Every structure is written in C-alpha cells, then in structure tokens.
Amino acid sequence: MTTKIDWIARAFAVCALTTVLPGASFAQDGYENLVLERSEAAAPAAPATGARPSAYAPTSREQNLGISDSSTAADGSIVVRNAKVEIPKGEGYEALISANGQGLLDELRLYDDNYDLSEELRALSEHIAGEIAAEQSQTTPSGSNETGSKGPEQNVDPEQARRAAVEGVEKQFALLGRLGVAEKTESERPKLQRGMLVKKGQYLGRLQDDELKQEFVVALQELLVARKEADKTLEIDVAIAAAQVAKASYQRADTLNRSMPGSVSKEEIDEKYYDWIRASKSIEKARYDWEVNKEKVKVSLARANATMVQIRNRKLRSPMDGFIDEIFQNEGQWVREGDQILRILRLDKVQVTGTIDAEKYAPEDVDGKTVVVSVKRPGAEPVELQGKIVYVRQIVESGHYYFYADVDNQMIHNDETGKDYWILNPGSLVTITIKTN
What we know:
Elements (H helix, E strand, L loop, with lengths): L1 H19 L7 H8 L25 H4 L4 E4 L5 E9 L7 E5 L4 E5 L10 H22 L18 H19 L20 E2 L4 E5 L2 H22 L2 H26 L6 H48 L1 E3 L4 E6 L6 E2 L4 E6 L3 E9 L5 H4 L3 E6 L7 E10 L7 E9 L2 E4 L4 E4 L6 E7 L2
Antiparallel strand pairs: 1-2, 2-11, 2-17, 3-10, 4-6, 4-9, 5-8, 6-7, 8-10, 11-14, 12-13, 12-17, 13-14, 15-16
Helix pairs in contact: 4-5, 4-6, 6-8, 7-8
C-alpha cells in the first residue's frame, strides 16, 4: 500500500512540473531520470560574448550559409579561411554512367585503351563467311563454277572459297567502319574497382548483347545477299534477248503477210506484236527490279549499321579521364534503362569556393587574381598550390559574396600503400590567399 501511494505521489509531482514548465519536453529518457531521481548531464555552456564559434559546429545563420573568414594581410593580400574545395560544375569533371537499355549487366571489366568494338563484329563476319564458303563448296555442281571454266574434274577449293567469302565480308565492313585491334580475353581484363584510373573513350564493361549480335549476323547475311542481287544483271539480259526474238518474229510475220496477203492471219500477227510489246516491258521491269535491289543494299547496310550502334551502346565507355569513385551495380545484376552503374571523378583540377566581406572588398578587387591555396596535412608541413579566381558572384548574401578559384591539383605517392593520392580533396576546408597586388 505504501509503495502504491509513493508511485501516485511521484506521478502527481510529474504533472506539477509539467504545469510549471509548459515549455519543457519530457521524453522517455527524461521521464526515467525524473522517476529514478537521476541527475541529467549539464547542458553545454553558451559561448562568451564576442567569441568566435567553432567552424565544425555552426550555430549562426552566417555559418549555415558557409560564410568564410576573410582578413587583410600586411602585404595587402586577402586571406580567406575555411574556403571549401569542390568539384567544378559543368566542366566534365564528374560523370555518372547509366544503362542505355534494359538487360543483364554482363561484365564490369577494364578494356585495353586501344580496344575497338568492331573487332568483335569482324570475328562474327569471318565466322559467317566461313559457313557461307563451306556451303558454296558443297552445293556447287561438278563441272562448273562461277568463273565459267569447264571440266568435270574441277572442284571449288574450300580454303580458296573461304578466303573469297572473307574478302567479300571485309568489303562490306569497309562501308560499316574501320576495324581495330583485337580485345583481350575476359580472364586478362581486370575487374573494375574503386580508385581505378580510366581514360576517355575506354570501355569499362557491357550489358548482355548476345541477341543483338545474332541480329547483326542476320543483317550481315541480308547485306551479302542484297549485294549479290544488286550485282546480277541476268534478268535484264534475258529480257533484252526475249524482246529481240519477239520483235524479229513479229517483223517476219508482218513482212510475209505484206508480200503474200492472207498467208498469216491477223490474229497471229496481233499476238506476235503483243509478245514483242510485253517483252519490251519486261526489260523495263528487269531494270526496275535491278534498281530496287541496289536500294535493298542500302537498306541492309542501314540495318547492319543500326544493329552495330545498338551493340556499341551496350558497351560502357568512360566519357573522360579520371578515376572510378563509385560502383553502384555488380556483374550479373539486372539493370533498367537509366540505372546508374558507375561514377567517375576527375580531380586534376578542382575549385576552391569562399566568401569575402562585401563592405571591405569589391568584386573587381579579386576577380581574375592569382591565389595561393594552403593545405594542412596531418603530420606534415602545409602544402601550397597555385590557382586563379575565375568567377565572382554578383549577389551579396549576409553581407558577403562568393568567389570561385580554379586550382591545379597535385598527387603525392605513399610508399607504404604504393598508391597516389590527391592533395586537395572535395569537401575539405583550406586557407586561400588572394594576391591583390
């Protein structure tokens, strides 16, 4: 009974405190401290009047806006502390590589710098050419060949036919694009890792493209067939010969009927005349079909080109020199169009952003000036790098305006890890000295 009364009294005490301190918030921890009669940790003391708050614990509106501390040195230079290192915007220093289509992420591997995608297609074309040559060597009738030579003992040499077919395919590839150097096998290509250096245009992986390669095979076969059809003028020659025979037959019948009236009926003369006209029109049709076949070559070539473009789009290519900062997907994952796969950064040049008191310095006082960026490194002497202010913002915020300086970054080598590291890192704070004189 005594315990219950004690708990009721403590509950009334809590209600009384809530009434007395309406602005207080009693969370679960605070309630337990009150009930269990524990003392809470003392709140941190407020900074003294006039004391500058820490740069790492912003409490004022100016610090939330990223206002730097600027002062004038003895030589007239402007010293700006707590300037921030950033990646330049809109200058090709950061790139997100996304999927151009939907499919399986087949590989994320680093290709040779001189790798040419067309080499894969060349291998396909040679394979197709070999199959076509083998088929032709088996189906060519004994005693004849395409060159017109005769003799029952003569047969087509499969190797010669294969070389001829390969040459034919390579002629088509001359239209599709220049071929390059063969790629390394998959086992010789390293997997992508964060921090790996890449070059502009270098292939970094691919989405699955087996189906597109089969479409390219079909397009290439159609191209070869269309080329043969376009080179063939046999139908025109046959139509011309038929028209000449029909014309001669009509003229003989007409001449005979003129010399011996009634020897040839009028109906027969009309039929022979009709045969002549129809044969003449066949020439026009044969020529029309020949022109259509030439256009089919262009269509087949365009289809092969379009398929090649799709295969090329399945490859992931670096848009700039830099290093791999993030890998968002892994090999074997299914990606949709637009999914981010890689993030590449370029840090050979960075921007340092700071603010200057608008009441002390005008924008024209600092725009285009040379700067010296001082970087503090743990356990080592500060490093100074040169740069130049490239932009001064004309908008004043909280009595300050922003400036942006381009700085050439440098790398240092660590013998222990065997790696190179950039001195200026985006997000770090540095001191920048603006040379006004």
